[in-house]
Amino acid sequence: MVAHSKLYEALPEGFGYVLLTGAGSVFVNMWMAINVGKARKKYGVEYPDLYSKDSKEFNCVQRAHQNTLESYAGYLFLLSVSGLQYPKISAVAGSTYLLGRILYAKGYYTGDPKNRVFSSISWLGSYDRQPKYSSDRHLTLKL
Known about the structure:
This protein has 143 residues and is mainly alpha-helical. The protein has one domain (13-140): Membrane associated eicosanoid/glutathione metabolism-like domain (Four Helix Bundle (Hemerythrin (Met), subunit A), Up-down Bundle), CATH 1.20.120.550. It has helices at 6-10, 15-43, 56-85, 87-108, 120-126; strands at 132-133, 139-140. Strands 1-2 form a two-stranded antiparallel ribbon. A hairpin with a 5-residue loop joins strand 1 and strand 2 (139-140). Helix 2 (15-43) packs parallel to helix 4, helix 3 (56-85) runs antiparallel to helix 4 and helix 4 (87-108) packs antiparallel against helix 5. The two termini are 34 Å apart.
C-alpha cells in the first residue's frame, strides 16, 4: 500500500486537472519564447536588445510574449488558489485563458497590433477567478 502525504490528502478531487492546466501554460510560454527566437533570427535582432528599432513585426512577436509574461505569475496563483475550491471549473477557465493567449499571439504575430482582438476569450477564462462583491457591498472573494 502506498503512503500518501498529508498535502495529497488535503487537495480536492480533480486538482490534477489544475496541475495539468498549469503545466500546459509552461508549453504555451515556451511556444511563444521559441517564436521570439525565430523572429530574432528572421529580423536580425541581436541580444541584449529587447525590441527592434527597425522591425515592427519583430516587436509584435516580442510584445505578445512579454505581455503574457507580465500576467503569468498572477495567472498561476489564481489558477492554483481557485483550484483548491473549484478544481474542474478552474482548469476549464485556465485552459480557456491559455487558448485566448494563443489567439492573442497569433493575432499579434501578423505585425498589426489591432489583430489582437480575438484575445478577449482570455478574459472569459479569468472570469471565475475575479473578486466578487456581495449584496452588502463588502468585497468577498469567491474562489
